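This week, work through this protein record:
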Amino acid sequence: IGGASNGNYGAMRSLIALRQVLEIGCGALVIPDQIAVARAADAFDEMDNFKDEANTRRLKDVVQSLIQFARHYA
């Protein structure tokens, strides 16, 4: 799962709630990895790419984890 907010912690707080709804409320299997992008209004360039390489790496790591998880449980 992933989220973005204009503040420093809004995305992380919303992901905590979303994870609870998906896992407990819906019974979904949610991978542990996630990405929370802070200060989203300034996080992307004009082509909608991350300006910060750390966010790019984190997103790639989350996607890679999802792929590995899907291969294992498919």
